[in-house]
## 1
Amino acid sequence: MHICSLSRILASSLCTSVNFNGLYHGLFQVAITTDGWTSRATESYVTITVTFINVDWKLVNFVLQTRPLPESHTAENIAEVIEYAVKEWKLPTGLGGTVPPVISDNAANMIKAGKVLGCTIHIGCLAHTLNLAVQKALKVKSVSQLLARVRSIVSFFHRSCVATAVLKSKAQLLGLPNHKLKTDVCTRWNSAFEMLNRFLELQAAVVATLTSKEMMHMKDKTLHSISDQNLTLAQEVSVMLKPVKEITTMLCTESLPTVSVIMPLHFKLTNKILQPNEDDLHAIVEMKQIMRADLTQRYLDKTELLNMTSAIDPRFKQLPYLSDDDRFAVYNHLTEEAIRVSAVVPAVVKVKTKKSEPVTMTKATVSQPPLPSLPTDMLEDQSDEIVCDTAPAIKQESQIVATPKSVLNDILGEVFIARVEAPKSSQELAQMEVIQYKSEPPVSLNDNPLQWWKQRELRFPFLSKLAKCLLCIPATSVPSERVFSTAGDILTAQRASLKAKHVDKLIFLKKNWK
């Protein structure tokens, strides 16, 4: 058999061996991320990933499909690809609607695609939102000129092997790390931040290299050195952008919930980090004002939902950035949503049948606390006695005339009347859960909220279901964007002519098969 044919057969068989049935067991909500990319052969693809919280309360990410989109990337075409994936994979939507929550970038075609699909929850990627805000701030005239000067110096060293060698020797003499200067990419603001940081790190070696004898005869005449004023500005820009860089890095995690962080971070950025200080340079003040104005207009139509996701996360449940009235309204909405989700999603009760069998999950129509049971060893030791002595025990019980319980009932029964409380409504039960949840001790920001909910799932049957539905939503479209690097490893220059169906299978296996 030909090697190519063998690899195709293996790829197809391995794809079918990736079983999602076990992962879907007990699953009632997922979120999807999507993004488009272009291969080396200039072929357009759209990748869709799914994120959910499994029965063990762990955040799981899977790539569903990578499909070609040779047509124009209109909202209708993108919506058709997403809708087909939802139907093909039968994705559950516990929060309601026909499509799970969608996370994408803030492009106009993506936003319109969400409206075409009728998405009840469509959140713009926070990392992309920050990128747009910083890109606008970097267009401040003095900052843009600074970046152009640094870029020209970095380009000079990248073009000259002699300059690079001299820079390396100068850095070694000055006790600086043996690092290479970085250049920026126009579409990624963090590349400009890294370029400035690396230049500031090696600035002494760069100056020493440009003024050395080895470079006098080949120095680019158009190359301008950085003045002290520009050097100060570079340091201030680096300091201002550092928190934004740290936030972006933190959002890239795929093991902890991130949607609940959006509103706390949004408040921190717009009310603290991006507030101008008295000692800020004029350019820094202008950058902060531009970023703050841009971010203030984001997520206005998602405030209620995002505040609820923060409230259901035990790390942020106190909602200190809200007023008392707003906090009260958020928890009222949280209670209503918990009742609605609980009515749609059947309760999941843990049942252990035998000592040797693992814990299984069964569905129940009403959420009830687990019934108390005898220890397993007692049941095993007394099982024979229970079966054999049932009849004599009944006969002996019939001969008893009066017991202490019946005497107490005769004497005190009129005074101490046993009252049976009427069953509480779902509204009352949910309200009691919310009160108890709010009274729980604060959780450290370093703790895992999913493990917290795992330990309290049975105590909060209403809220735990809502937590699984909301906390599975990522704050960014990073899961789908990470496919780009994977696709680069698969669609190399030597394999640029791979068919779309093989690209889909290979990426699927690369990301999912473990």
## 2
Amino acid sequence: MAESKSKSRKRAYVYSNPYSLAGTLKYDSFAMPTSSRTGTVPRVGSLGARQMQGTSYATAQTKNGRTAKYTQESPAFSGSITLPVLPSEAEQYYSLIKSTGSYMPVNESLDVFVLLDCDEHTKFIKANSPVIVNRKGSCYTCTCSPDRTQFVDNFETPTPEVDRLHPECVHIFVVKIIVQEYLNRAGLEDCPVLKDACGHDYASNIAYGKELDESHEHIVPFLDNKYVVRVDGSYSVLRTNFGTLKCLTCKNGNSCKHTQFVNKLLNQSVEDMSECVHKIHCEIHIMSNKNNYELKCFSSHKIPFILDNCAINKRSSDLYPINDGIRQVLPRHQKKCMICQNLQFELKPVEHVSTFLSKYECVPVQVYERICVATGCSSVTCYDGQQDCVLNMGRFLIHYEVLRDFMFQYLYSRSTMFSFYNVWLQHQSDNGNTQFARIFSYMYFRQTWFAYLQLMDIDFEADFTCRECGPSPVTMLFDGTCLSFKKNFLCSDEDILLEKQTSKLSGSSHSERVFIPNKAARTLVARFCSRRDGLQPEEFTTMKSLLEIHQPSMVPLLACFQQIGCTQFSPEEYVDLLNALSKNSPVCATFPLLKLHLIQNIIESCRVEAEILSECQTHIPVLFRFLSTSGQVSSAVKCVLIAVMEKTRAPFKGRESHATPVCESDHSLSFFPSLPCLRKRGVYSADKEKSTSGCQKNGGRHHALLPGIFTTFCPHGICYGFEVMECEESPNRPFTFLKTRFETSAVK
């Protein structure tokens, strides 16, 4: 775009973009300029076109509400121009894909187009969301509207009812105006085989399109690491990413017919591959090797939490000088060798060229090593980078500003590592580094962050210990979170806490820990406490019969209810107590073992003291609410409380001590700095093998993520550590933690 003359509030611009409707657009009223670099076009959504011989006039609405009229001069032909009227949404999308080049005609007759979709909220192109627009006669279909496609495919000649029943999408609107541009530039009424002489620069795209003939290969390149594939007349877009091949059009993108077709071609020998298939082969092979490469940290100095303001603000231009067209990274100067005390050194470049990475920079650098020249001395000094606020990961030098940015975002806004990495990708893209994801993958970022975390000068053991509770707290709180990572990041790790043994240890069973061991009896007692369901007379009799077998201590209490006519609903003051006793959970969870002396005092005394009530309010709130409403403890209730005490003590009474071997190493998925693993867990009779037969399913689990993280806290809210859960949370998790990490049991 070149500005010809500047006048007061009137400007004339020449639009020289080859993708424009004509070679020249002249504004003769107040209008916004357009840029040939970005391909921005005037608003065409409000175009009112008038057809004339040789010249076309149209008006466009500007942002400030004024009307701008432009003329279109077309010396190539003298036909008429008909421009589709675009809605505002299509108008924005049209400008966006034209400026980014995110579209391509697949064949020469312009029957098939592939475009990248746009996010309707952010107005950004979605790189991995392609759509395919097909033309059948005068009717268009799009992969974003399966109903319209199915309707059109059922008719040899599409009917006019299609647009009424299934309206055209924004992608079809845009393709229509692109096709119309072709026709107008070539002076044609229909779409024959178009050559690049039509004026629209599609020469490279049309050349690829020829490969989709029946006699040629069914694969053509689209954009970076994307390819258009046709199988049995069906088009799709495939992507190579980190050593894998995936179809972005089909739902089962990893195993659809398009992916299978390309994988079949990839199984050929390299000599038999065409140029396009060989390119896919190279991308998959190279990215697969990159993904398997593990970065090594060459930095060794501890990194302080508070950094020097001068060092953290330096850029690559401030840190490293340029020599022979590339920035040189030299290790810190030292006076003499630390091994042989020699004073002479030589600088040697490392084998590979590294990349310096900051928030916006991605600069190639040459890293040097300092080698002692003394005979027999093998001393090599690597570039540490700590003095420059840079972490040396071999192939990459990462500035601390990136890692500290993620650290503070995680601490204050709970940003995930993957979310931060995507934000970093966007920063790099804004600075022109559009291929940053292929240079520095998410796996590399994870490895870099963990290396940085290991070097930070932080006493994790002290920070994971409460000052009041000490290293071995008496009371601990356990909680499982749903925050975790993908299963494919999980390394195979044998459970070192288990031991191979033929004899299994005996432990308490479920029936010993639950007050009412029979499920049917528990259900009836729960309904008896409910104000909505209640029991029928025959159900009350059934409940009484079941409790005579499974919990006889409750029979006298039910007899008292029957005498006062409470056979359908429980008396109000007994609802909370009976509801707690009907739970399918251990009794010691409601009535703590260490607080049974309170129940014993209530049973033995005629009058409950205020101190006892106050302590019950804190530790046994169910019993406190019962005493507050009833005011007295009958003999029938005392029988129930005696049974509660016996049930609470049962799992801990008369049990032999289970001595298990010492565990010398900890599990790789756990982190408890102040509570190391002391002994192995052992194998118990309750550890049953899961059955692989029958109808089973894991409810509530994500198909690709691990269940979550198991965390431990003291009563003051200090976290003592965490462990990644490989299976669903269960009582086995806290049991294993307590058994393996404490010298003695907290329960005496």
